[in-house]
Specification:
This protein has two domains: 8-184 and 224-245, NAD(P)-binding Rossmann-like Domain (Rossmann fold, 3-Layer(aba) Sandwich), CATH 3.40.50.720; 185-223, no CATH class. Helices cover 48% and strands 14% of the residues. The chain contains eight helices and seven strands, in the order βαβαβαβαβαβαααβ. It has helices at residues 17-28, 41-49, 65-79, 102-130, 151-170, 189-202, 206-217, 226-237; strands spanning 8-11, 32-36, 55-58, 84-87, 133-138, 176-183, 248-251. Strand 2, helix 2 (41-49) and strand 3 (55-58) form a beta-alpha-beta unit. The longest helix has 29 residues, at 102-130. It is globular, with a radius of gyration of 18 Å. 44% of the residues are buried. The structure holds nicotinamide-adenine-dinucleotide. Nicotinamide-adenine-dinucleotide binds next to helix 1, helix 4 and helix 6.
Length: 258
Amino acid sequence: MTTLNGKTALVTGSTSGIGLGIAQVLAQAGANLVLNGFGDADAAVAAIETLGVQAIHHPADMRSPQEIEAMFAMAHVRFGAVDVLVNNAGIQHVSPIESFDPRKWDDIIAINLSSGFHTTRHALHGMRARNWGRIINIASVHGLVGSAGKSAYVAAKHGLVGLTKVTALETAQTGVTCNAICPGFVLTPLVQKQINDLAEREGLSEDDARARLLGEKQPSGRFVTPEELGNFALMLCSPLAAEVRGATWVADGGWTAQ
Ligand code: NAD
């Protein structure tokens, strides 16, 4: 079993959904946690501390390079290092390109892509010095294939897959690895909003909208879970994954096998 005792993990966007699920699995393995995100910070810290490790929350807005730098400064003061970085924060907006709000485009590129560049540049120095580190980018199937209406999200996630490969190449001869996890649909607030919008637009019940969303894309007909993704992340932290570099690991119920 992989142990992260004495190590520190920083997970962006970890007050809910996939980020909180990954943080919980890393905490179960012994890592102290730096949490981030706009949800209920106290509840997220409590959910981690109940697992017997230490947790702090920093409210950095992933659109702000200065706030990201301040989050890393706080992590170093409190824990002395960031050994595992999970770039998870992300938002979605669905609209055809002609009517896509340009401000939403900028926000999605900043949060889902550029924040990963800023966190990585702050994390790498210490990881290189200790010759150990894990950078895990939560991309998406939309880092590999497109869907109509999701221009900014698909562009950002393809960009994050590209950043993953370059980070992996620049660290290839060190004990630092960088990989991307590409989930299909996971039932989180981000996807619940798409279900609600679909139900309203098409006059469907919530159950029918959920089934329609899955049915269009995900052959398994069920959602991937944050816990499954957390265990995937933990596997990437294990010695067995020491030479897994620049990979894109799908967990998508068969979405991209079609
Ligand atoms: P979520 O809405 O539950 O969580 C997103 C997290 O990011 C929250 O903690 C939120 O507060 C935080 N966040 C949002 N804007 C932020 C900002 N400006 N600065 C800092 N934090 C911010 O969504 P989720 O579904 O858990 O998504 C997590 C990641 O997984 C995202 O990158 C998303 O693209 C990716 N993903 C989700 C799915 C899915 O089906 N849910 C599938 C593939 C990939």
